[in-house]
Amino acid sequence: MFYRDDQGAIQPVQTKADWLRRRTEILSGMQEAMGPMPERKRDHDFDLRIDHREQGNGFERLTVS
């Protein structure tokens, strides 16, 4: 994965700071193509229910609603 530095040169992502910079580039490009992301609400009230549970060989499958 790569990002563009202040001079426009392509650099490899090697640090957390590099990743944060690349992440900003990715989100900017995505929002340019798709429009802005909706506002994130933190106060979700989920009523998660397990409707069906199936045990498999090395896994468990849940049907939730």
If you had to describe this structure to a student in words, what would you say it looks like?
The chain is of the alpha+beta class and about 60 residues long. It has one domain (about 1-65). It contains one helix and four strands. The strands form two sheets. Strands 1-2 form a two-stranded antiparallel ribbon. The protein has a two-stranded antiparallel ribbon with strand order 3-4. Strand 3 (about 50-55) and strand 4 (about 60-65) form a beta hairpin. The chain is elongated, with a radius of gyration of 20 Å.
Low-confidence stretches: none
Task: Please describe the biggest sheet, giving its number of strands, its sense, and whether it closes into a barrel.
Answer: 2 strands, antiparallel
> What is the distance, rounded to the nearest whole angstrom, between the alpha carbons of the first and last residues?
37 Å
Radius of gyration: 20 Å
Total count of strands: 4
Rounded average pLDDT: 92
Task: Tell me the strand order in the biggest sheet.
Answer: 1-2
- Shape, per Cα inertia axes: elongated
Strand content: 25-35%
Counting helices, strands and paired strands, the structural category is: alpha+beta
List the helices and strands and how they pair.
Blueprint: E1 2-4, E2 10-12, H1 16-34, E3 50-55, E4 60-64
Antiparallel strand pairs: 1-2, 3-4
In short:
The chain is an alpha+beta fold and 65 residues long. It has 1 helix and 4 strands.
